[in-house]
Design a protein that fits this description.
CATH architecture: 2-Layer Sandwich
Number of strands: 7
Distance between the termini: 29 Å
CATH topology: Alpha-Beta Plaits
Strand order of the largest sheet: 2-1-7-4-6-5-3
Strand content: 35-45%
Structural class: alpha+beta
Radius of gyration: 18 Å
Number of helices: 7
Number of domains: 1
C-alpha cells in the first residue's frame, strides 16, 4: 500500500535526492494563495549540472515500489533548474533562513528591456523591499532548464525568478509594499514585462543532507 503523497515526498522522495552529491538542502512550502500547484520545493544545489548527474539519474533505478506507484499519479510536476544571479539580505536581519513565508515572482522580459529591468530590480526594487516590515531576504535567479509532467506540460516557464523571505504573512497589506511596487521607474520597466506570475507560500518543512 502506498503512503499519502505528502508523507512520501517529505520522508522518501526529497531525502533520497539529498543523498546526491551537490544537493545541500530541500525546503518545502505550501501555498497560501489558493492557486495551483499547492506545494513548492526549493532545492539548494552546488551547481546546475548536479541535477542531472549520474548519481541523480541512478535514483530512478533505486526507486521503491511506493515511489513507482505514487510518482505517475502526480497531477502537476514542474522541475526547473536556476542559476543564482543575486542575493540581497536585510542589513539588520538576525533571523535564520528560510523565512516562514515566501513570495515568488516569475517574469519574462523583452530582450531589449532586460538590462534596464535588472538595473531597476537591483538598484531600486530591492532597496524598497528592505523597508517592508518582515522582509528578510530576496534571491534572484535565471532559468537554465525546465521540464514538466501532467498539468505542467504546456504551461509558460519564465526566465527570471525572485524568491523573497518574510517573517510575517501580512507584508502585502503594508504601505511599504505599496510604495515598493508603485514607482515611476517600475512603471517604465513593466512596459517590457511580457508575462508575470506571483505566488505566496508558507514554510512546511526543512530537510537537510543526512550525516
Amino acid at each position: 500500500m502506498s503512503t499519502a503523497p505528502q508523507e512520501w515526498y517529505n520522508n522518501e522522495h526529497a531525502p533520497a535526492r539529498l543523498t546526491v552529491p551537490g544537493y545541500i538542502t530541500a525546503t518545502r512550502y505550501q501555498a497560501t494563495d489558493s492557486q495551483k500547484p499547492t506545494y513548492l520545493t526549493v532545492y539548494d544545489i552546488s551547481s546546475p549540472d548536479v541535477a542531472d548527474s549520474p548519481e541523480y539519474q541512478a535514483l530512478k533505478h533505486k526507486a521503491s515500489d511506493n515511489e513507482k506507484d505514487i510518482l505517475p499519479k502526480v497531477q502537476f510536476l514542474s522541475r526547473r533548474i536556476y542559476q543564482t544571479i543575486g542575493v540581497f539580505t536585510h542589513p539588520a536581519s538576525v533571523s535564520t533562513f528560510p523565512g516562514k513565508y515566501v513570495l515568488t515572482a516569475e517574469l519574462e522580459v523583452k530582450p531589449e528591456f532586460e538590462e534596464e529591468f535588472n538595473k531597476w530590480y537591483n538598484e531600486e526594487h530591492m532597496g524598497l523591499l528592505e523597508k517592508v516590515p518582515g522582509w528578510l531576504r530576496g534571491r534572484r535567479y535565471s532559468l537554465v532548464t525546465s521540464a514538466g509532467r501532467g498539468g505542467a506540460v504546456g504551461k509558460p516557464v519564465f526566465k527570471y525568478l525572485a524568491v523573497h523571505d518574510f517573517d510575517n504573512g501580512n507584508y502585502l497589506k503594508t504601505p511599504e509594499w505599496a510604495a515598493a511596487t508603485d514607482t515611476p521607474w517600475r512603471t517604465k520597466v513593466t512596459e517590457g514585462v511580457l508575462l508575470m506570475e506571483v505566488r505566496q507560500f508558507e514554510l512546511n518543512k526543512i530537510m537537510e543532507k543526512p550525516l
